[in-house]
What we know:
The chain is an all-alpha fold. The chain has 8 helices and no strands. It has 2 domains: 18-222, Methane Monooxygenase Hydroxylase, Chain G, domain 1; 243-288.
Amino acid sequence: MTTNIPLLERTQYTPLSLPLFLSEVDSFKTALQTFESALTYLPQLHDEALASTEAPSAGSGSGTGQRLDAAIADFSQQSKGLKDMLKAMERDVLLTERDGEDLGEANAKRAHWKRCKEGLQTALGAFQNTERVYRQRLNDQLSRQYRIINPDATEDEIAGAVASGETQIFSQAILTSNRSASASSVARAVRERQQDIVRIEKALQELLTLFQQLEEAIVLQDPVVENIEHRGDEAARDIERGVQHLETGVVSARGARKKKWICLGIVIAILLVIVIIIVVVTLVKKKE
Length: 288
């Protein structure tokens, strides 16, 4: 029953084109449909688990419990995979909105992502409600089991025994019960149901965490976007420094060229002085 859900894991910082994004949306919807379809069989597994302890002689309790545990583990894996896909889609939406080149495309992506998110929230809500209903049915069954071994128990005593989650309370009641024939069956049923309750509490806590993560994805800045902003700022600073260096280089080049002209002028002046001196000396010698 385990389903491998493809994850949208990208390292590039360029948003997907709209057709590629819609392809990811279709993959998400397919995975969500698989999750929802499997979820429809969960109440049947609950019924079998409850029936196995209502009639312990059937001997199918452990097998049903194993199938139920495997189903819940698979649901947990699928829901986490769906959450990861949704966050990757949201990342792409944020990048597209930041790019800002096509507002229509950004709005279309956000609309599709929002519908996917709502679909996942609805499916997780259904999973959560199914587990809560099963938890209530377990409590009702434990109440009946306690009444079997302690018919004189008050409603408060029964409620306290069930709410405590302690098998020791049931064990003590079994030891003092005059219905030893059903005591062992009740003890096994109680142990199995307490394990189910622990598993349900864990599943509900994981679902609560998933709901929180989905909401956080809306308000928290995506690390990829933060990285882009950081790199963008660095690039802007690098460009600014480059412009400054270029301006400094231009000024230096202009200064160097000016100095070259000055040096050339000095050399020409010296040469002119030398030529004049030679001419004067020559003329003086001729007159002598």
